[in-house]
Amino acid sequence: LQGIIKGGKNIFEEIEKLLIEADIGPSTVYDILEAIREDNKRIKNYKELTGFLKAHLTKVLDGSEGKLNLSDKSIILIYGVNGVGKTTTVAKLARYLTVKGKKVALVAGDTYRAAGGEQLDVWANRLNVKIYKQGHGADPGAVIFDAITSFKNKKEYTTLIIDTGGRLHTNENLVNQFSKIIRVIRKAWGKIPDERLLVLDGTMGQNTVNQVNIFSKVIDINGIIMTKLDGTAKGGILIRIFKKYNIKIKFLGMGEKIGDLEEFRISNYLERLF
Amino acid sequence: NLKDKISSVLSQLKGKRLNKDYVEKVLREMRISLLEADVHYKVASEFINLVKEKTTGEKILGSLTPYQQIVDIVYQEFVKIMGEKPVLLEPQKGRLNIMEIVGLQGSGKTTQVAKLSNFYKKQGYKVLVTSLDVYRPAAIDQLRILANNNDLDFYYEESKKPIKMAKKAKDYAVKNNYDILIFDTAGRLHIDKEMMKEVKVVKDTVKADEIILVVDSMVGQDAANIAKEFNDKLNITGSILTKLDSDTRGGAALSVRFISEAPILFIGKGEKIDDIEQFYPDRMAQRILG
Ligand SMILES: Nc1nc2c(ncn2[C@@H]2O[C@H](COP(=O)(O)OP(=O)(O)OP(=O)(O)O)[C@@H](O)[C@H]2O)c(=O)[nH]1
Ligand SMILES: Nc1nc2c(ncn2[C@@H]2O[C@H](COP(=O)(O)OP(=O)(O)OP(=O)(O)O)[C@@H](O)[C@H]2O)c(=O)[nH]1
Ligand SMILES: [Mg+2]
Ligand SMILES: [Mg+2]
Do B135 and A206 touch (CB under 8 A)? Predict the structure, then answer.
């Protein structure tokens, strides 16, 4: 690959470093560099190379921008591993949708972790939105079932957003509990949730792929939200994930405040990568 | 053990006549494996280059047992970075030891604070925990609930000022003869100047004995940035790697250890109060090597 750049080894190493440090992952990085070499036999300098890279990655990510498909009565399910930003993202989505004229209600589906429900309750109060909650230790399936049953019959709400407790994809019990939650939603709603959004932490590396792998076995993921891209992490793993799973990316979390949610745009994303 | 693991990773070198190019090729593959394990780019390069220098000289390659010598060198280099034995943090009884727990958002600090308190309480220390997280909704409740559920001493005084809270907590701990006071702090970005200043001021105000960085073991390349910034600003004395009950290879451990030069003290391997254990460097090294 050193042959592709007249500058030689230094430019090649520089770009490899940039892509690896973005968490794109070694095998995907080498695929990318190989593809660039095939299309561009003579690259004069680093600036030209990044230009080709951006063009190539824009192609690779073609079709990755997704949006919420909501009708006048929809359910959004939020899930993912521990600490990625689910509860905060539920609150951000509530505000985002309220601004768009939706009437939002929330479900405190984390009945396990200390202050899991209380945390979302604080957000609900700040946003002045309805929240369905039950006591700590209640069965999450039951809380969700009751919430949907009520939501179905209330004209005043258009969108129900369900927060769930963090769960490692490697924890069989919690993954089974998640499958049960989906069955409960099917029963109460008559179908699977309209938006089934996996939350990924932008600071995480290659393990993110394992998360998508396992969760996609128990639910048809139709959207990804990646949080914490307001730090120094680049979230390059999204490139590897989209290449492999073709799941649309709908939002990026860019901070801890309620307004720190942006619609995923390939150009903005790639701009930050470089 | 780690040496067996290294032997198997380098097994392509076994029973062959070795030359510099071939050894370098196998080491390149090891470097890629480290990158796939989320070891930071610079850390992986530096590690492999160090090993390359020591293993491709004529002294090694021309010897009777080049493969074994290369395995030994790689093992030594790993042990040099990760440490050879677990490092036990044993606070002195009879005086107040203050631990300040810091790290990025969602890394597991609050949970680990409760686990640490329980860990030391079982060893006979009198431990007090308190939260300085005035930002995250229900953060104080989270620690209070964990403390109540596990019979741990918890201190809190209503306030929006972390520095003031820290002083009051210390006074209370001294007055009531605690051996250990553990501060849970809010998650923060290493590039947030104001927030990094806040934990520095807390450290200087209470004269913290330990600054412990909590890192999510699933973190990727960013581990290096996090470790560097927290170490530069606070001089961390130790770290805890959480969520090792996942299937992450945990290369962040190598990066954090390499850059901060502070020992990894504990690992978190679950959400329950007992899910904390001593960090074993050779076990982690094996895990990273895949
Ligand atoms: N910097 C930054 N922090 C974030 C972002 N999203 C969430 N956080 C923070 O990450 C931490 C964890 O957020 P939570 O919403 O509690 O995460 P969670 O996935 O619900 O956690 P569990 O329910 O415990 O699994 C909090 O401190 C949030 O403020 C983001 O986009 N950027
Ligand atoms: N599986 C697993 N989960 C963990 C571990 N440590 C913490 N958690 C979970 O990770 C999530 C985040 O933990 P917290 O203790 O709230 O993290 P934090 O660093 O205090 O978060 P902020 O205060 O928002 O920065 C919670 O769901 C915890 O139960 C661990 O070792 N393994
Ligand atoms: Mg949550
Ligand atoms: Mg916390």
Answer: no
